[in-house]
Design goal:
362 residues, alpha/beta, two-stranded parallel sheet
Length: 362
């Protein structure tokens, strides 16, 4: 976002908050009537440095994370997802608490930097949090598919070399065409994940591995947590939930695969951690009514998205979250803006067409 656009957004947010228009909008669109659930991904020491190697929109610095938590703790009662769930079962469409509203902090993927950077801050502040884990990656050297794709495409796009796949030459043609249209790594990754099947994405990764080498240091930086870390978190009161076995984008999978990804992940986590796993987060926030039903059948009690669509059929399995990262609520100087965060949690900047997913049953 340009400095001018940030200035306009920041000035608009300050005016809206001074006039309390944000509260009117929040009441009108229903944001004020439900608990606030925040979604983070990675917490790093230095955002500018980490953003040179990783997807910036997944990052928040320790300093910014603390500023956002400060604001949240002043305006909300910070609770666990179990408390959100208990409240939702009694009044699924209402925040309903007297005084401060309820809010909960969640993290997707299960990166090890949660353990090293976020967990100490949350523990010191007494703030409960939940981590949605990709179970097949726990304790391995494997990377998340989107991270590996981003790292490889970032290098390959700087000096494109011919890709060859004798078994499927059409895949190479389609990929090269897509990358010509999306030469920036972040948008290239988004396009590849949205346009190619999971098996094709795996084939693309195999092709890129022949030409691109990811340094060990980068792999370590993006490493997932191991089982001992998760056991420590559980013992310290943090909630562990499922993010599937492989970060599968579920609406694109057959029913048998969906069952394996969802139920299999829950069983693996429960076996290793010795606790009930009640909560599930949809990878990339992708779901439809069929998927929500499958999550219920798989034995979960609640599931979480990253858009504002909440099914009236299964409200507890389509609970909205607000995604925050480093630049989600900063002014034109890059400084944390309480006014912008206040507008975000009240849906001021939401567009009616912002979510392009088809959430209907398929």
């Amino acid at each position: 976002m340009s400095t001018l656009r940030r200035f306009v957004k920041s000035a608009t947010a300050r005016t809206i908050c001074q006039l309390s228009v944000d509260k009117v909008i929040g009441n009108h669109n229903g944001f004020a009537d439900r608990p606030l659930i925040i979604c983070y991904h990675r917490v790093v020491q230095d955002f500018a440095d980490a953003a040179t190697r990783s997807m910036p929109s997944l990052l928040v610095s320790v300093d910014m994370f603390e500023k956002q938590l400060d604001w949240l703790a002043r305006h909300y009662t910070m609770v666990s997802l179990d408390e959100i769930l208990a409240h939702g079962k009694s009044s699924p469409h209402e925040n309903g608490s007297k005084g401060k509203k309820l809010a909960s902090v969640t993290f997707d993927e299960g990166y090890a930097d949660f353990y090293w950077n976020a967990f100490p801050i949350l523990k010191r502040r007494g703030i409960p949090a939940s981590v949605f884990v990709v179970s097949d990656l726990v304790g391995t050297a494997k990377l998340q598919t989107h991270d590996e794709l981003y790292l490889m495409l970032s290098q390959w796009l700087k000096a494109p070399a011919p890709l060859q796949c004798k078994e499927n030459p059409g895949l190479v043609t389609d990929l090269e065409s897509a990358l010509q249209q999306h030469p920036e790594p972040y948008y290239a990754v988004r396009h590849v994940l949205a346009s190619f099947s999971q098996s094709e994405v795996l084939d693309i990764l195999a092709l890129l591995r022949e030409q691109v080498n990811i340094p060990a240091g980068l792999r370590e930086e993006l490493a997932p947590m191991d089982w001992d870390m998760l056991r420590t978190l559980t013992a310290q009161g943090m909630t562990i939930g499922s993010h599937t076995r492989s970060h599968a984008l579920l609406p694109r999978h057959a029913q048998e695969s969906i069952n394996s990804e969802t139920r299999g992940s829950r069983l693996a986590l429960e076996r290793e951690l010795g606790v009930a796993v009640k909560h599930f987060a949809y990878p990339d926030g992708q779901f439809d009514e069929r998927i929500a039903e499958a999550i219920e059948v798989a034995g979960y009690e609640a599931a979480y998205a990253i858009c504002d669509h909440q099914s009236h059929i299964r409200p507890l399995y389509t609970m909205p979250r607000q995604v925050l990262w480093q630049n989600a609520c900063v002014d034109e100087t890059g400084t944390f803006s309480p006014a912008i965060l206040r507008c975000l949690v009240n849906g001021v900047f939401q567009r009616t067409n912002q979510c392009t997913q088809d959430h209907l049953k398929r």
